[in-house]
Structure formats: C-alpha cells, structure tokens
Design goal:
heterodimer, A: 0% helix, B: seven-stranded mixed sheet, globular
C-alpha cells in the first residue's frame, strides 16, 4: 500500500519560514494537498493540486511537489499557524492516503 | 454555502454495527466531480480515510477495513450513509464526512468537512 511520511514535529520562530515535508514513492507524479488542523477543530484545506490556495488562505502558505517529496512552506509564520498539518494524495491502489501529520510549533 | 453534518450514536458496544449519516447541503451528489468521503481520527492520532462515493456511484474503501465497511447514498435526501460492522474499542474515534472534489486528473482534495462526531466503543 502507498504511504506518505511526514516528520512528527517542526519548530519555527515567529516571522521565520516553516517547511513541512511529505515523502512518498514517486509522489511528484501525484497531486498533493495539505490540511491544517487545530485542536478540537475539523481539518481545513490550505493547499490543493500541489500549489493552489483556496480562497481565504493567506498568501504566505505555498506548496511544491517534485520527485519523492512535497513541501508545505509557511512564510512569516505567525503564532496562529501553530497546528497539526497533514498531507494527502490519491493513489490508484490505496485510494486516499494521509500522511501521519506534523505538529508545527511556533516559539 | 456548502455544509456537511455527521449524525449517529455516540456510544456503541463491541461487536455492534455502527451506522453514521452525513447530511449535506450546498451541492448535489448528482453533479459531476462531486464525492463524499468518510474519514476518522482516533483521539490524539492521525487522520484515517475510510470510504468514498461519488456522483457516478463509484465506491472505494480502505483496504484494511474493506470487509467491514459499506457506503451508500440517497441523492433525494442529500445523505451518505456509512456502516461499519463488528465495532471494537480501537474504532473509538471522531468520524468526519467531507466533500472531495474530483478534477481532470482524478479524485483530489477535501474542500469541505463536517464538524465530526465522536464515537466511543465500549461495553
């Protein structure tokens, strides 16, 4: 079955750039999206189709996907960006796949 | 405005069958490119996808849970129902329904989620 691997945690200082990776075999051949989930809340889509932002998502959120790795980048990170982030892709045999999640800490 | 809402029992006993209903508005499951999925999240753990049903009545299931899951839809009521048999304590989780958009390249992303419903499996 297809698997997506994320680092369990990433730390960043306020105002700095946070990068969260998502790895999978030939992931660059698939579209990847990213969700933000804060405690007690439902996930929110922040990036889809590798690098598209839904309306209402700040421009400081961006995405890329190439080779075996997709990356979510948050520029000028703010305290309100502290959350769990999940990558997700569709695989033809496993169907929907989520990464294990990355806890972003802003300190 | 797209909304989804999950409903079902908060508590089920081991070996029982869980039935959850997702009632949605703001879109139709008869429209090309639309699908509704079920996803769950055990307390403190990651998201786990369960099942998919789309406008064309395609259905997909998690390979690890396929034998226990059935997804169906009632387009006249704007509802999608998930049944999961033989519930165990490890199935305790928040269960979400979410709309997934299907783009030219295939199923893509969940753009709207329900608030989730916590299901506890305990005797």
């Amino acid at each position: 079955s297809y698997e997506l691997t994320q680092p369990p945690s990433v730390s960043v200082s306020p105002g700095q750039t946070a990068s969260i990776t998502c790895s999978g075999d030939k992931l660059g051949d698939e579209y990847v999206c990213w969700y933000q989930q804060k405690p007690g809340q439902s996930p929110v889509l922040v990036i889809y189709l590798d690098n598209k932002r839904p309306s209402g998502i700040p421009e400081r959120f961006s995405g890329s996907n190439s080779g075996n790795t997709a990356t979510l980048t948050i520029n000028e990170t703010q305290a309100l960006d502290e959350a769990e982030y999940y990558c997700q892709a569709w695989d033809s045999s496993t169907y929907v796949v989520f990464g294990g999640g990355t806890k972003l800490t802003v300190l | 405005q797209v909304t989804l809402r999950e409903s079902g029992p908060a508590l089920v006993k081991p070996t029982q069958t869980l039935t959850l209903t997702c009632t949605f508005s703001g879109f139709s499951l008869t429209t090309s490119g639309m699908s509704v999925n079920w996803i769950r999240q055990p307390p403190g753990k990651a998201l786990e996808w369960l099942a998919f049903i789309d406008w064309d009545d395609d259905r997909y299931y998690s390979t690890s849970l396929k034998s226990r899951l059935t997804i169906s839809k009632d387009t006249s009521k704007n509802q999608v129902v998930l049944t999961m048999t033989n519930m165990e304590p490890v199935d305790t989780a928040t269960y979400y329904c979410a709309r997934m958009r299907i783009v030219e390249a295939g199923p893509s992303h969940f753009d709207h989620w329900g608030q989730g419903t916590l299901v506890t499996v305990s005797s």
